[in-house]
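In keeping with the milestone schedule agreed at the kick-off meeting, the structural modelling team has produced records for the first pair of proteins. Each record is given below as a sequence line and a structure-token line. The laboratory manager (R.T.) confirmed that both were archived under the project's standard naming scheme.
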Amino acid sequence: MRLTSPLSEIKGVGPRTFAAFEAAGFCTAEDMIRLLPRRYDDYSEVVNIADLQPGNVAVRAIVESVHTKRVRRNMAVTTAVLTDTSGKVKAVWFNQPYRETQLRTGKTFLFSGNFGMKFNSYQITSPSVEVVEGEAETASSSNVLVPVYRQIKNITPKLVRQTLEHLKPLIEFIPETLPKQIATHEGLISHAKALQALHFPSTPDDIAHGRERLAFEELFEMLLAAEMNKRENMKLEGWHIPFDQPTVKAFVDSLPFPLTNAQRRAAWQILQDFEKAIPMNRLLQGDVGSGKTVVAGLVARQAAQAGLQTAIMAPTEILASQHAKTLADLLEPHGVSVALLTGSVKGAARQELLKALEGGAIDIVIGTHALIQESVHFHKLGLVVIDEQHRFGVKQRQVLMEKSQHMPHLLSMTATPIPRSLALTLYGELDVSILDELPAGRQPISTKIWSPASTPSMYALVDKEIASGRQVYVICPLIDDSATSDKKSVEAEYRRLRNSAFGARRIGLLHGKMKPQEKDEVMQQFSSGALDILVSTTVVEVGVNVPNATVMIIENADQFGLSQLHQLRGRVGRGEHKSYCHLVLSTHDKPSQRLREIEKSQDGFHLAEVDLELRGPGEVYGRAQHGALNLQIATLADTKLIARAKHAAIRLIDSREDISDYKHLNGAVARYQRLTTLN
């Protein structure tokens, strides 16, 4: 048998089983070997039931009783009573009715899961199950560390482990994927030994060494591609924009507010980039309301002074319109022409705008995807600014960049605070500027957590705010009701609020399934004060500035990441009035420590670090949509390993070793290189 052999050649894998494996993307022996465990059940410290403490536990117990109850459509709960000589405990599984057949009464099993208080009683929630006492062949009979893999439809965990057991001799034929000098220098085991250690560990150290090797490799591939991109970008010819101090000073002095030190620092970094012969590739990240638009306006003013045009692309028409108004107010007194190009600009007005843009009469154009249409031509495009850059695909950015004779300078902006470790990894080919100060006068937002039972009191407070002329956001995680989820939907919440708590108020509805024009109309109504309450999904996360909105209610707040909650909270607190954020829990359980953090902190960067530690990168930071975060093992919170991988990547490039000899590494680097912002 070879690595390329189909799984159908393995003993015990018949046509139906092979079809199930194939449907999940596992066709060959190598595919299966590269399925890595999600975690391990540790049976080395089995405890008596009477000695259980909250957290992950392992018990050896007899099944006293087991039954399955259907509590609602698409939800079945299986409950077993487990007993040993010291006492009894309840185990609960959700939508796993097969457990009733598996757990024969009077037989002994090993259970591993989380023990704690749920629904007013102590229980072990969704534990793994291992057969003992010769009931059946099991991995736990020889190992105390049992790997747990992701669920594969119509395949039992036991069959997954058995299949891998058959493939064990093949693992040593897995080719090495790192250059020898890198693996030796970093003291890493081989790729094959790492896979062996993760699938068949004898000790926790085996798992640690295996994870270290594969995690390093994942980060190394990413960072190697980023460093190679960065060096290739340095060969490109860009626009030289000299620093004109009087012009910059005149603009800064004319502002109706003082710049923060962070804004001054970021602007200075960008202006220094302009003077170089290579195109800038910089990420400007700042918390909601930190003043990114003003920084963009300042540097666009400098580009205009050098006879170059700026294109600013925003994800929505209403946001583009807001940027256009802000920048026109700031820049037109200085003789800088500002135009707005969106899908709504049509007919003769559109043709006139396009002609002026191509002729050089427009210095700064702000728009949506309309900017990348074939009919749009520039006279001299020197600077491209992408607002909320994670909302645009690589190809969309590339099309805009290619509308210039030389590679334009690129400034990407995001309001999602990104931990430095994540920025280093994801944006290794970019220079990063951080706005970590809020402009003077911004009031902190009062944040409070509410249980479902206490919402009437919360609604009374909110109604007082509406009565005083303020406006309210209500955020729900779903658009429609779901039979498989208790999460609130905007459709149902919109109807409920209209028919109960806020029946006398003007309520609007906003979600992602609405047409762009419909969404813009609703947001315009809310912005103008024609609506008291806007019930919405997270589409408002990146949205228009409504200073009169002072209340943010987030339903099922425990279902969101901290960074997203913080982003949503930033929709309020933008005016002179005191603002409030109400986080409503899904259940009556006590709020988690994670939620307590957002109740205490207004610092988006701190919350992003906490979120990264607790939840992983997820998609909240943006580039997951492009496939960049293809991480199985590595954690982006491991700053030491990231630093090691980055230094190793630089050493390899400097050594001029040809990586094409390493097929896997070469392919991974090529994939990541395609994700670059400039190439």
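The second protein of the pair:
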Amino acid sequence: MKKSILILSSLFLTIIMQGQIIPQPKPGVAPTIKIGKPLTFELKNGLKVMIVENHKLPRVSFSLTLDNDPYTQGDKKGVAEMTSSLMGSGTTKISKNAFNEEVDFLGANVRFGSNGASASTLSKYSGRVLELMADGALNPNFTQEEFDKEKTKLTEGLKANEKSVSAVARRVVDVLTYGKNHPSGEYLSEETLKNVTLEDVKLNYNTYFVPSNAYLIIVGDVKFKETKKMVEKFFGSWKKATAPSVSYNDPKDVALTQINFIDMPNAVQSEIAVVNISNLKMTDPDYFAVLIANQILGGDFNSYINMNLREAHGWTYGARSSINGDKRVSTFNASTQVRNAVTDSSVVEIMKEYKKIRTEKVAEDMLASVKAGYIGRFVMQIEKPQTVAGYALRIQSQGLPADFYENYIKNISAVTADDVLRVANKYFLIDNSRIVIVGKASDVAPGLEKLKMPVFYFDKYGNPTAKPEFKKPVPAGVTAKSIIDNYLKAIGGEKAALAVKTIVMNGTTTIPQAPSPLSFTSKIDAKGKLMVELAMGTMSLTKQVLNDKGGYVMQQGQRQNIEGEKLAEMKAAAIPFEELSLSKKQGLTVESIESINGKDAYAVKNGKTTLFYDVTSGLKLAESKVLEQGGKSVTQTTNYGDYKEVKGVKVPFNIIQNVGFELDIKMSDVKINEGVSDADFQ
């Protein structure tokens, strides 16, 4: 069922690709700057306060940060997350609704978490907003009702992420890099969350939300003496206490570079991360050289890795690397997302760029450009008062010299090509890296196993596992026609399917960076008419229509007629159940039995499209289609689930499509043989 959503998603891909082809401009030469120092004091309870006066605008911001040692939560992983969720649910003095209403009335923003709080407001309301922030931080109201609500929301989020390739990649990279018994390696699960109680949250708060390692940073249109009095008034009653001091053995790199592969059969692209422990500290003499070396390798748009994978080969929308100095432990990480078909080639090219920066001196013009860009961004950030306060916090918490940022530009400018070569060999460990890849094993693993490095397999939680069985043989007697016929039987029978003359599907979905959920509407008339639309409120984002006269797409008020192959695709989609025509079509082949979201499915090949039908239930689980986008072949996969009966026919109420990100559409309403008129297709 439903190729219409495939057509819609191809438009998204086009938008995404077009939106990322603009190169970044080269920054100019940065001026010499002088960084002001904040005024500081400390309360008797240990709270350290830093105030930066800036009277350019009548605004002020507050930031409370708890710089405690990270700690493991064990079988109650989730207690810190629940503490963060519950903070801000009112105080012991003010109800949640009254608190939020007053914040809104003042035009302020106030946020809370297990590691601190923040607020911003007009300076004339600074006293009251600081009081509200202090009240919320020091006197949170933890109730069972709010606890149950937040726990349910967090559980639903975990369930949604189980099919997310990027979410699994983030989790497994941390597990394999740090280990499950390290604070940075343990992960939240439904099982551990179930163990968390309201009493655990209260204990977590009382243990760790203490002033011993706390910093309060105030930036904006304030006066030091007045602000100091307010801080003493609102935070002076905070009971003196010290958070537990925790230490862990540093994680270790692997003895030899290896591939760690995680199979996700629903993946249409692979997540690649090349990781090693760096242990870079901001106090290290190498710090500035490492920053520049990282920019050259993968930190900039014009970096080695990005120019190779994106610009030279067109395999990705972006490839980046990162390294941060941390007083505890840190990593170097180079990551990207590529099509399954080029995963092995991408690994080869990434490692080639690793070798290049470790064996060849960077060109002087590139070095100069990277340093100028870095300095330019530094200068732009220094204009923000919040940045100055952040620098002051790092000086305190990281043990940096007082003139660290005053000498920042000088130290960046002093980095040489020899320095880059030296630190690249020290911190970018080509021989001791984990290459963590999350993708579809049947498409990716054979190519990876041809590379000259060991491949180890893990599950979605970082546990070692056997090499997955990619494909199973099809039993004798099973044909494409028998699979299609079985599908029609599973949804209610061919007669019931033929009785469906029109079908309407209404649902909602979200896309990255969208301020609110989107509405999805699909209408199909068996006479060959189709309408698919995504809208945000009353504003249509994209709409596609097929009628007797032809097809067109409307996007941002612009109409474009659809012709050729795309028009043919639309016409093929303008049928409630495509299997009614497929059952009579010649040339379909049964490729194999593959795993789709943990279920065995027959893979039926129809030209550039592969359809997957559940071996047990007969229902369609997914379809995969090869499309041409921008001169490149792109595979789009649509997953179908949550089948429900509507007027004697089973239809999917959940459709998930990978369009560079997951478009997860949940249907709220499906109508058969009603709710459709000719006006819908005009």
